[in-house]
Amino acid sequence: MNFNELFDFLSQLQKNNNKEWMDANRKLYKTLRQEFILWLDDLDLTMANLHEDYYPTPGKRGINRINNNLMFHPNKPIYKDHFGAGLDKAPKSADFYIEIGLKQCLLAGGFWRPEPKILRSIREGIDYNGEELQEILNKPSFIKRFGGLYEDEKLTNAPKGFTNDHPHIHLLRNKTFGVECQLDKKEVFQPDFKEKIKLVYLEMLPFRQYLNNAASV
User: Fold this and answer.
1) Rounded to an integer, what distance in angstroms lies between the CA atom of residue 161 and that of residue 155?
2) What kind and span of H or E run contains 178?
3) Each residue of 150-209: pLDDT tens digit?
4) Contact 4, 95 (CB under 8 A)
5) How far apart are CA 134 and CA 148, in angstroms?
6) Cα–Cα–Cα angle for 37, 42, 45, nearest 5°?
7) Under a CB-based contact definition with an 8 Å cutoff, are residues 106 and 168 in contact?
8) By the 8 A CB rule, do 87 and 44 touch?
9) E strands of 33-175, at which residues?
């Protein structure tokens, strides 16, 4: 994958964020998209060897659309400033997300504002065994890598069925259960970039497995 060409394309796209420019440069976009898919395919095969429950996710299935969803975000530009994809993505599970973009490059995972049923299941899992999740979050290497849970909108009071004096109320109030690892753009060009991805993936794995176990109940 030629990431220099990818960043150059994204830079030009953001300067000319309109359908006319995209149509005129669609051949280049399709070439870069296919290169990214092949890079994801190779990464997917590498990741599949990391643990037995890995859910194979070919690049073509994992890659996200470059169009923004203007129905829900009408003020956003037509096209995104990044290429993104989710791997290890079983249905209704916490995926492992990769984003290579102009403003940020990152690795992330978890559930971002999941549907009510999944959110309820996660909260019930925390109610039953929140100590395990807290232990994962408190692990020094986890804190070093991710800092903590992704900061998103939270409930002011306890969710329905729980009390404000619950020992894990600080977790139960979350609407999003995810973490992210910001990358320096320079890391994308390093020959050990895939090794870095593997390390982040493995550090995040217990967190994602906890969420998936809770969500599947």
Assistant:
1) 13
2) strand 177-183
3) 999 899 989 999 999 899 999 999 999 999 999 999 999 999 999 999 999 999 999 999
4) no
5) 10
6) 125
7) no
8) yes
9) 82-87, 95-101, 105-111
